[in-house]
Design a protein that fits this description.
The chain is mostly beta strands and about 100 residues long. It has one helix and ten strands; from the N terminus they run ββαββββββββ. It is globular.
Length: about 100
């Protein structure tokens, strides 16, 4: 099993091979011509507002990002954690697209 050092997400080497060496399923990269999609398959763009679909622990802190928290003005970046954002009270951090859904309206 592979383990992400930032979020402790685990995946098997077989899953990486099935995805063409990209690592985890569902996360594309916009700069390589692929579209970054949220947990429900909706394409994300820079400046979108997203909502967390899972409680996430903040590494190096006792803080927890609660389910339903809205994050405004995301930026899409390269890497396994493909969303860069700023969260009030926490600061700048990176998120995985599989833990968010695009907020409506």
């Amino acid at each position: 099993m592979y383990v992400c050092p930032e979020c402790s997400h685990e995946w098997s080497p077989e899953a990486e091979e099935d995805n063409g060496g990209q690592g985890t399923a569902g996360a594309g990269k916009e700069s390589s011509g692929e579209v970054v999609r949220d947990a429900h398959g909706t394409p994300l763009e820079d400046g979108d507002t997203v909502t967390l679909i899972k409680d996430l622990k903040v590494k190096g802190s006792s803080s927890v990002l609660k389910i339903g928290m809205r994050v405004k003005g995301i930026r899409l970046v390269e890497g396994d954690h493909d969303i860069d954002c700023s969260i009030d009270g926490i600061g700048s951090m990176k998120l995985r697209s599989e833990f968010v859904k695009k907020a409506s309206g």
